[in-house]
# Entry
Amino acid sequence: MSILLALLIGAAFGAVLDRIGASNPNYIGKMLNLTNLHLMKTILLAIGTGSVLMFGGQMLGMVDVGHMSVKSAYLGVFIGGLLLGFGWALSGYCPGTGVVAAATGRRDALAFIAGGLLGAAAYMATYPAIKTTGMLDAIAGGAVTLGTVPGAKYEGVTTLPGDVLGIALGLVFILVAFILPERIAGQPDVVAAE
# Structure
C-alpha cells in the first residue's frame, strides 16, 4: 500500500511540476538568468508553505519529528551542490524535473536521465578513491540543524528554537515570493514550448 501511495503522490507532484512549467528547460533557464521569475516565485512559495506547515504541525503535535532526516555536512556535499547547479543551468533540468519532462515525451530529458545515471555510476566506481580524500568527512558538526527542534535527535548550530526558526524562515520565503515581480522590467517574456 505504501508503494502505491508513493506512486500516486509522485504522479500528482509530477503533474504539478509540469503544470507550473518546471519540466520546460526554457522556463528554468529564464528563471536562472532572472528574466522570468514566475517559477522562482512558485518554488519559494512551496518551500515557505511546506516549512510553515511542517514546523507548525510539529509544534501542535501533529508532525512526528522522529521522521525528520538531516544529512551530514561535508565538503563533498558542497562540491556536489555546485556540480548539480551547473548541470541544472546547462541542461535546464534537475533530477526531478528531468523525470517529469521525460514522462511528457521530451527526448532531451531522456538524454539528461542517461547522463545522470552514468554520472552516478562513475561516482560509485570512484567512491573508494573519493572517500580517501577526506571530502566525505563530516564538517560543521555533521548532521545539525540551524536551531534545536524539540524531540529531534539533531543538535542545533544556534540556541534558537528550531521550530520557531523554521516557521520564521518559511514566512520570509512566502513574503519574498509575493514581493518578487513576475518579470524583470524591460525583459521580453517569450518562452518556447520545446
